[in-house]
């Protein structure tokens, strides 16, 4: 029976796998496009400063840089652990 | 005033030099005075593809450093009227290229030519950035393969930020997608990205599609740009690309698998 299942199994075409993977990676790359070169360093150092006071995961910190007409906004979102727990 | 077109890709081995040579040849055959410049300092190959490797005396770096004049370094193509080649240096390292030097050469050439084709090195380092910096238009060469598409997207990011047009806030560099080594049979089998997928992911306009072709290797073996082989699929596809670059509407060819007849199945038709 195993053989029959194996034969019946629809193989996902490799090109559509490639397309899905590329769509994700390209969207990610574009998110970083145009941001200043110092952003990764800035993110890393901000994370270190925050960790000095509270223990948070990498994922709990979200940093985005938006630019509007004549100014840029650096937005820092930190999900702090519930204080009752600590 | 010349139009400066960079042929770039990020990834190596996708057909930048082949395309730069074929497109420059096509432009010259159509009566445009064209020069193609090799920016791959240290690893020059354009001279081989153009079949003028034994005529190289001076190169781009010699001109930048004032050791030769532009006239001494440019090679006139033997087959095609209106076509000139400026080779890269084989011995120097890529730091020998300076933005000021490149600008001086390009502005001098701009007076004399209709088209300046810059053949970029692979990568996103200094050489690649200098090749694209002064460009008016860019041809992004992409293979239907994940790493090539991803690198092309990186290059598009650089074109929109690290070029003179971007830095000075002028009209952006016009970006064209050139898909090479396309194999319609494999696309039909679902084992190769199709051209709609690639244009959708990169979201730039397609200027040409070059099928995987035996004519390309044959052309580079002989040092004759494939555009001269006008009975071949690749040669015709490059000629179409050149027409589109000149603003003509040309219907896309070679993107569908050929139905093989009985005889060609047996004897294996070769183009």
Automatic annotation (TrEMBL), chain A:
Keyword Cell cycle: yes
Gene3D superfamilies to which the protein is assigned, alphabetical: Cell division topological specificity factor MinE
Record keywords, A-Z: Cell cycle, Cell division
GO BP annotations, alphabetical order: cell division; regulation of division septum assembly
GO molecular function: identical protein binding
Xref: InterPro entries: MinE, MinE_sf
Record's keyword annotation contains Cell cycle: yes
One Pfam family in the UniProt entry: MinE
Described purpose of this protein according to its UniProt entry: Prevents the cell division inhibition by proteins MinC and MinD at internal division sites while permitting inhibition at polar sites. This ensures cell division at the proper site by restricting the formation of a division septum at the midpoint of the long axis of the cell.
Family: Belongs to the MinE family.
Alphabetized NCBIfam families for the sequence: minE (TIGR01215), PRK00296.1 (NF001422)
Name of this chain's protein: Cell division topological specificity factor
Lineage: Bacteria, Pseudomonadati, Pseudomonadota, Gammaproteobacteria, Oceanospirillales
TrEMBL record, chain B:
Annotated AAA domain residues: 2-150
GO molecular function: ATP binding; ATP hydrolysis activity
Secreted among keywords: no
Binding, ATP: 11-18
GO BP term, example: division septum assembly
Gene3D superfamilies named among the record's database cross-references: P-loop containing nucleotide triphosphate hydrolases
Any Gene Ontology CC annotation: cytoplasmic side of plasma membrane
SUPFAM superfamilies linked: P-loop containing nucleoside triphosphate hydrolases (SSF52540)
Keywords: ATP-binding, Cell cycle, Cell division, Nucleotide-binding, Septation
Pfam families, A to Z: AAA_31
Reported function: ATPase required for the correct placement of the division site. Cell division inhibitors MinC and MinD act in concert to form an inhibitor capable of blocking formation of the polar Z ring septums. Rapidly oscillates between the poles of the cell to destabilize FtsZ filaments that have formed before they mature into polar Z rings.
Quaternary structure annotation from Swiss-Prot or TrEMBL: Interacts with MinC and FtsZ.
Family: Belongs to the ParA family. MinD subfamily.
Protein name stated in the entry: Septum site-determining protein MinD
Species for this entry: Larsenimonas rhizosphaerae
